[in-house]
Each structure stands twice: as C-alpha cells, then as structure tokens.
Amino acid sequence: MRPGGWSRADGAPWPPGSRSAGATGRLRSAREARGWTQDELADRVGYSGRHVSAVETGRKPPTLRFSRSLDLAFGLAGTAESFDRAWGELRNGSLLEGYPEYLRHEARAAEIRLFEVGVIPGLLQTEEYAAAIEASAVRRGMITAEQAAERVDFLAQQQAALVRSVPPIVIAVLDESCIRRAIGGSGVMDRQLAHLADFAEQANTVLQVAPYAMGESRPFNHLLNLLTMPDRSVMSYAESQTQGHLDREMTSVLPLVRAYHLLQAEALSQAASVAMIDEVRKGTA
C-alpha cells in the first residue's frame, strides 16, 4: 500500500477537476450553502480562518480530526456524506486510483495472495515498522507527523478487518529484499521478522521468500495482490510508485494468477523461508 492524501505529495494544490480538488471544493460549497464565512466555520470547528482557507484551496490537507470537526459542524457525522468517510477514501485513493475499492473487496475476500519487493506488505507489518516508514516520509517533508500517525492507525484498522470468524487464506510471497532491507533499525527489524515467523505458523497463512537466486525467473517487479472472492471470482491489484490499478477482467487477471502459481513453485518452501528469516535475524545469512 502506498497511501495518498487530500493534497499532492509535493504540497502544491490539486489541479481543477482532480478528485482531491473536488473534495476540497465540497467543503467550500457546504460552508457557503449555510451562509458561513471561513471565520465563522473556523469558530465552529476550533480552527483558524486561515486554516479553513488553506484546506479549501488545497494548500493544506485536512486531518482526520479536522474532518470529524466538520461533520459535527455540518451535522454529517455517521452519514454517507460525512467528511470523515471522504477523508478515509481520499487519503488512501487520491494518488492511487482503485485502492479504496480494493480495500472494500479485501475485507470480504476468501483468499488474499500478496507479492512485494523491498518492503514488508502492509497486512504483515508491525506497528513500529509501519511507523518507521511513515517517519521517513515526515523527514522528507512529504506528510505531517499527524498524517503519519493517522496512516499507521489506518493500517491497524485494515489488518483488524481481516480478523473474522472464518478468516481468509493469506498467501504472501516476499522478494528476498523485503527481509534484508533494514527498516527502523535492528530492533524494529528483528521484531518485524519475528512477526513474519509467527504469521507463518497460523493455520490460514502461507509465507514464502522468493530468493535472489530466482533472477529473471521472478515474474513480478512491483507489488501485486490477488483476491479470490466468496463467489470464486478473482481480481488483481497492482501498483507502481504513483498509480494503482484494480482489474476484474479475467482475460488480464488469469495470466497473473498463472504467473503467481509459477512464482510459488520456484520460491522457497515455507520451512526454508522461515529458516532464511531466522538466519537473517541471527546475522548469519
């Protein structure tokens, strides 16, 4: 998952007609429909008029707290039109189209197959590993510290959504780079790797490592998720650095399913994968 936000990562306003520009425009429309000035709305939500103006023009991304304050002011809390709901959808989908829809399907999927390069997939991340990734984004000026905390909280919610009476089968094939790329320092990484080993022991999971030795035989170079739904339909979700794509057309999804099966066949077995993880933890591999 590479979550987006209400505003562009470079801090510039969204172009007219973009999804996030529409969201911030909705705030202005709701305010003007009630005949409130920016300062009057600011008094109702406990922020400054300058802050409201910055959000309306897309110069500042709204936080979850700000969005919930808007819902109280406009009487939209708990409704389908709430700013809280819009914040959740746009925060995770404005940069990567298809991701909010993917999450809705993921929460109902009977089987989830994951592949990732360079970083542990979000569903398998520990809180401190995820926090280290977001802290790096804060240092680079991509997001605020508050946004980073909200992203980590959202990831925990995504993981919790898979805790059901009948949990989905989760199959994860990780490129070897995922377990060797140190994130957050040795302690954070050691606990993350221990979490992967625990994940492998669950009755509804499979964990495999695609070793560097696979070379060009590895069929994927970017994140790929495959969802099998209760009706046995299959969809794929793939990402580049800035774009996400959800696909339900079997003519394009089926080749990815076949390639994933080949990936699993050539990857290390679960036992060998856990052994490699243990060796990395000990610093012997």
Q: Nutshell version of this structure?
A:
The protein is 49% helix and 12% strand.
Strand content range: 5-15%
Rg from Cα:
21 Å
| CATH topology type of the largest domain | Endonuclease, Chain A
What's the end-to-end separation, in Å? 28 Å
The low-pLDDT segments are 1-22
Q: State the fourth-level CATH superfamily of the largest domain.
A: Endonuclease Chain A
Order of helices and strands: HHHHHHEHHEHHEEEEHH
Report the strand count: 6
> What is the CATH class designation of the largest domain?
Alpha Beta
Mean pLDDT: 85
Largest sheet: 6 strands, mixed
Report helical residue fraction: 40-55%
Sheet/helix structural class: alpha/beta
Q: What is the correct CATH architecture of the largest domain?
A: 2-Layer Sandwich
Describe the strand arrangement of the main beta sheet, using strand numbers: 3-2-1-4-5-6
Supply the number of structural domains: 2
- The best one-word shape is elongated
Task: Supply the number of helical segments.
Answer: 12
Secondary-structure map with pairings?
Blueprint: H1 19-33, H2 38-45, H3 49-56, H4 64-74, H5 83-93, H6 99-106, E1 111-116, H7 127-139, H8 145-160, E2 169-175, H9 176-180, H10 186-200, E3 205-210, E4 224-228, E5 234-239, E6 244-247, H11 250-266, H12 270-282
Describe the structure.
The protein has 285 residues and is of the alpha/beta class. The chain has two domains: 19-93, lambda repressor-like DNA-binding domains (434 Repressor (Amino-terminal Domain), Orthogonal Bundle), CATH 1.10.260.40; 99-121 and 166-282, Endonuclease Chain A (Endonuclease, Chain A, 2-Layer Sandwich). It is built from twelve helices and six strands. The chain has helices at 19-33, 38-45, 49-56, 64-74, 83-93, 99-106, 127-139, 145-160, 176-180, 186-200, 250-266, 270-282, and strands spanning 111-116, 169-175, 205-210, 224-228, 234-239, 244-247. A six-stranded mixed β-sheet has the order 3-2-1-4-5-6, with helices on both faces. A hairpin with a 5-residue loop joins strand 4 and strand 5 (234-239). The protein is elongated. Mean pLDDT is 85; it is low at 1-22.
